[in-house]
Amino acid sequence: MNYLEFGLVRESLRERRILEDIAPNLVYPLPFLIPNYGNLKSNKWIIKAGMLLYDLLSFDKGKTRHESKKLPHHQSLNKSQVLDIAPMLPAEGLTGGAVYYDCQSVAPERLTLAFVRSAAAYGAEVSNYSEVVQLEQEEGRFRTAIIKDSLNHREVRVRAQLFVNSGGPWAERIIKKLSGQETAHSVRMSEGIHLIGPQITRDHALVMLTPGGRHFFAIPWRGHSLYGTTDKDYHGSPDDYRVSKESIDEFIQEINSSFGKTILDYSNIVHAYGGLRPLTDTHTESTYKSSRKYEIIDGDDEGLPGLLTVEGGKYTTSRNLAQTTIKAIGKKLGKTLSRSRTGDASLVGCDIPGLTDFLSSRKEVYPDFEGNTLHTLATAYGTEMDKVIGIAKENPDWGVPLNADGEILAQVVFAVRQEMAVHLLDVLQRRTGLGTLGLPDDETLRKIGRTMAQELGWSAEQEAREIEIAKTTLSLPFREGAGS
């Protein structure tokens, strides 16, 4: 439990409940099974104590807007019940298990986009593919940012009383680039990768313990299991980061060793992806034991007046981190701010009073569309699915399912028209699920590329270039001439 950081755990549990309320179509309860064995970390009495504490810290988990989002207390299971849920578990030494409830973000890229679009709806100016190339000082403080718009190949000057650097793994490098100064603090970067492979449980996520004593999850997701995550020091530039064959091999070994049999190999992995966590805790022996707390650093204390730097944190608590940052800005500028509404206001497309009825009634509203398409659109877009359906009706080809989830070309058009998608990878990785299960087949990729080309006016050469970039980016590093 985050190494007894009860404050951070409590914050995460509170934020989980808020996300269920403000984005109900994108965040869903999920039962997690912890098998009990004889070792200390999975001993049933140790796990039982942890579950009781977890229930205590999540005392308000039933206070949700949607009945279907209420999370029950943990349950203890016997050996037979555990194996019914997860028959691939090693039976030797298994004494039972515990089930607790957490939440799953079914499409983190859509949830992030919903936050961005909600900010824009409330008046924020949102810029895509823009880079701050310089901060200029005035009377000893940063007052002007020069922003390079890489899409229109122009520079824009933005004046402000205060700037916030929330560059994640790039935060320190941003400071050095903009000021020419080294920071007095440091951020530790941790690599985390996920592998998508064969589904091993239907309804439950598994919490597994590696031989080295580290936990990972195997989560049911879109007809597969999502295995993750790793936690390993990364020492290079964030710009150069890619998921490597070495990292995949290490994780495959950990997974298979944990189950005592071959669960994953090169033949059944459909996708691999990863990223870097910025950690402010630099004193622990491994990133796995490092805190996920965040810090807000005043540039005045570092010779960088007019700049606040936000470092650390985790996805679940990012809304509260943003809220805390706004409070710090108000204090810094001597302004009295109104109470934040972000914990109450539904995100764009997520104002759905009766979620269960909304999901179940889509087939009656749109009888001409496939059931899996409607379910995918309802969960990914919420009430904005009506706009996607409207686009699908413009062209018969735009409503034809492209994959097992029923995704359609209308989503591609919507991404271009409404969600600032300008590159093929924007659509494949950051607006839809068309590329988040790995590289689509050539025919599907061509259809998506052609649709974007028509919407954006690409030349044949640019269309081919976008497809080639997508293939290079989404291809697995071991696929070329590799064996398991």
Task: Describe the structure concisely.
The protein has helices at 6-22, 44-57, 79-85, 108-121, 171-179, 245-259, 318-333, 355-360, 362-365, 371-381, 385-392, 409-418, 424-430, 442-456, 460-474, and strands spanning 27-36, 75-77, 96-105, 130-138, 141-149, 154-159, 163-165, 188-197, 205-209, 215-221, 224-228, 232-233, 271-279, 294-298, 307-312. It has 484 residues and is α+β, with helices and mostly antiparallel strands.
Question: Which key features would you list for this structure?
Answer:
484 residues, alpha+beta, D-Amino Acid Oxidase, Chain A, domain 2, Helicase, Ruva Protein, domain 3, 9-stranded mixed β-sheet, 3-stranded antiparallel β-sheet, 15 helices, 15 strands
What does this structure look like?
This protein is of the alpha+beta class and 484 residues long. Among the domains are: 27-103, D-Amino Acid Oxidase, subunit A, domain 2 (D-Amino Acid Oxidase, Chain A, domain 2, 2-Layer Sandwich); 361-474, Alpha-glycerophosphate oxidase, cap domain (Helicase, Ruva Protein, domain 3), CATH 1.10.8.870. Helices cover 35% and strands 20% of the residues. The protein is built from 15 helices and 15 strands. The chain has helices at residues 6-22, 44-57, 79-85, 108-121, 171-179, 245-259, 318-333, 355-360, 362-365, 371-381, 385-392, 409-418, 424-430, 442-456, 460-474; strands at 27-36, 75-77, 96-105, 130-138, 141-149, 154-159, 163-165, 188-197, 205-209, 215-221, 224-228, 232-233, 271-279, 294-298, 307-312. The strands form 3 sheets. Strands 1, 2, 3, 8, 9, 10, 11, 12 and 13 form a 9-stranded mixed beta sheet that branches. Helix 11 packs across helix 12, helix 12 (409-418) packs parallel to helix 14 (442-456) and helix 14 packs across helix 15. The longest helix is centred in the N-terminal third of the chain and has 17 residues, at 6-22. The two termini are 35 Å apart.
